[in-house]
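Q: I'm building a small set of examples for a reading group on sequence design. Run inverse folding on the following structure and report the sequence directly after it, with nothing in between.
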């Protein structure tokens, strides 16, 4: 069983920026990591869990939350406020008798699908496929 540790992931900028998510806590089997920004409400969050269902399936869930923070002036006082979030959910579900190779292939296919030119363009430009 892997121990929770920092995770560094590059973003999609022309010159990629590395984002390091540090372990925050594990509550009810959900590991949470955050990228410190100095403003706790503006921290990017990455969570990860694996749970076994009553039917024996193994559900893997990963969630990434990227808040957009702006200074908002209320009664003459400026304070950082989350104005919107980008949320990414990845849910994988494996049969109890799935092999390591099957799980590895599913993970790789998912990651590569997000990088495929057609799907990447549709996501980046918010254009539905026809």
């Amino acid at each position: 069983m892997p121990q929770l540790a920092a995770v560094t992931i590059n973003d999609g900028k022309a010159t990629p920026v590395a984002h390091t998510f540090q372990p925050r806590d594990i509550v009810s089997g959900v590991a949470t990591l955050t990228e410190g920004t100095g403003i706790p409400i503006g921290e990017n969050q990455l969570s990860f869990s694996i749970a076994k269902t009553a039917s024996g399936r193994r559900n893997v869930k990963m969630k990434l939350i990227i808040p957009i923070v702006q200074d908002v002036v209320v009664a003459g006082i400026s304070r950082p406020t989350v104005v919107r979030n980008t949320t990414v959910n990845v849910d994988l579900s494996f049969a109890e008798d799935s092999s390591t190779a099957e799980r590895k292939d599913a993970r790789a296919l998912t990651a590569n699908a997000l990088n495929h030119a057609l799907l990447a363009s549709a996501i980046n430009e918010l254009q539905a496929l026809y």
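The chain is about 20% helix and 50% strand.
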